[in-house]
Amino acid sequence: MSKIKYLAIIFLLGVFLALGGQDVFAVQLGKIAAVVNRKPITMYDLQRAAVPELKRAKATDSKTIDAIMRRVLDNMILDILVQEEAKRLKITVPASEVDGRIAEIMKSSRLSKARFEAELAKEGLTVAELRKNIERQILGQKVLGVEVGRRTVVTPEEIDKYYNEHKDTLYDRRDLHMGILIYNPKAPAATISRQLQSGEISFAEACAKYSIHPTRERGGDTGKVEWDRLNKEMLDRLMAMKPGTVSDIFIIHDDKHKMSFKAQVYLFRPGGGEYKLMTKQQATPMIMEILRAPKSKDRFDDYSSQLKKKAVIDIRL
Question: How many Cβ atoms are within 10 Å of 17's Cβ, its own excluded?
Fold first, then answer.
């Protein structure tokens, strides 16, 4: 039996037998999963990092747990290497930046400080641990921004080509908000969508009556669109929309509860106003970000591979 499969069994037994209280399991968790440039990653470290993903996947079989454990371990190894790069590059994260990120999370979750801390406790996290995790995330983003960013080049020719192919859809998207309507499974989504497109019902009214998303009480408004934080699917969807319009119905998957929901989004500027197409000069920064994203993914893969090749990594699973 491989060590990783043995670890999977240890994890499963731990779930059902209160792992922390069993001496035989404590011995296994104290073992080393990997050593990265003389920094150890224990089985306990690995399991603790993997728990959220294991819960989301509702993993109970050794094959699934094996795959998740290996993926999490790989991320932990890369995280150590990136943190070392941050020291080499003398990159730091001020406390105010961490405070700002936590404030964003609380605002988007619409939680009070006490409720927020209670939710963290349910996940087995303290505020101090969350701060440390966020600091590491920001640090990693800064390192990758420096190292990956300087390797990612968008040429003037690429910008010209993109602008000429999309100039009829390149509206000024600054300060736009996104509204989201996630349909109650019992709602007649197709009928409501037709009413939205024809103007028979407003997006805010549809959200108030039929949405199950927490933003339904404020007309579905999720706030100002942060274009650089959108996943590719949502970015492509919003970029194809004219401001002031509602998308067609699409499907949102809830992996945690193994459910799918019909949804629509609304791209708008609070208070209305005219929607203008951008000139090439105005559109260039946005086009650069759009073209940079897929290139950055390739550069990130190259950079992470280089870091691992230069490091001394001993995986003991």
Answer: 12
What DSSP designation does 183 have? B
- Length of the chain equals 317
Strand partners, 36: 39, 313
Of 72, 61, 84, the residue nearest 311 (C-alpha): 84
Q: Is the dihedral of CA 265, 271, 276, 281 positive or negative?
A: negative
pLDDT confidence tier of residue 219, bands split at 50, 70 and 90: very high
Q: Average pLDDT for residues 150-165, to the nearest whole number?
A: 89
Burial of 46 (0-12, 13-18, 19+ CB in 10 A): buried
SS (H, E, C) 275-300: CCECCHHHHHHHHHHHHHHHHHHHHH
Distance CA 123, CA 52 (A): 8
What residues contact 245, with CB distance under 8 A and at least 6 apart? Answer: 266, 267
Bridge-based pairing state of the strands 313-315 and 32-36:
antiparallel
Residue 140, Ramachandran bin (φ over 0: left; ψ between -120 and 50: alpha; else beta): alpha
Percentages helix, strand, coil for the chain, rounded to the nearest 5? 60, 15, 25
In this predicted model, what pLDDT tens digit does every residue of 234-264 receive, in sequence order? 888 998 899 999 999 999 987 655 678 999 9
